[in-house]
Amino acid sequence: VQAVTWVAVRSRKKAKASANQMTMF
What we know:
- By secondary structure, the protein is mainly α.
- It has one helix at about 1-25.
- The longest helix has 23 residues, at about 1-25.
């Protein structure tokens, strides 16, 4: 369960990072 949560948080941060990059450019 903990591993699944870690993956979900990681993908969420990744999506947030790409969204920020899109806003920047």
